[in-house]
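TL;DR need structure tokens for one chain.
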Amino acid sequence: MARTITVKGTGAIDAKADYITITLQLNTVRQTYQSTMQASDRRVQALQQALAGIGFKKEDLKTIRFSIDTKTEHFKDPDGLIRSVMTGYEIDTKLTLSFDFEPARLAKTLAVISACGANPELSIAFTVKNPEAVKRALLSQVSRDAAAKAQALCCSAGGRLGNLMSIEYNWGEIVIRSNTSFEYPSACTSYIAESPSPAEFTPEDIHLSDTAVFVWEIK
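>> reply
TL;DR here they are.
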């Protein structure tokens, strides 16, 4: 039976946040289906037109969720039974807008969104434009770390590494996102257009780490 050595490789890297995603939540409620659809469409079109005015294309504003549901209210009838009645319709729309991170451009984008009248809920994430390159760099560091550890252990024991026999890796999703918090509740949107966010700030670097288990043959 071949002798083996099992080593856990670890890696950690910092990535500079160079990309931004703004998530916009629109919740529209009206009494009829048609009026709800029309009101929802007007809000989305207002966003599209406002963003077009600062150089974005219509397709840059992407829909990631669109749901329609009925609104109901519950009441107790004279017999004491709980009844429900439909009072209208509700459309929940979630949109995203992503672009290269520039503080001044972010400030201008928030200003036009806030001034257009759509009144979305906003959340902002700072990430990287090429996440796959960051993941590959992290995995390369994990592999190099494991190989160096295995080589050092074998040399100290008077042996040498043979063929790599297996790798155990958890293929869970690696979340590449800065911890920088940048939130605007809807109650504040009326002020953003008048006083855009500061033009100069730097998001915290993105800290990533990962591990994998390697098994080599020992010769």
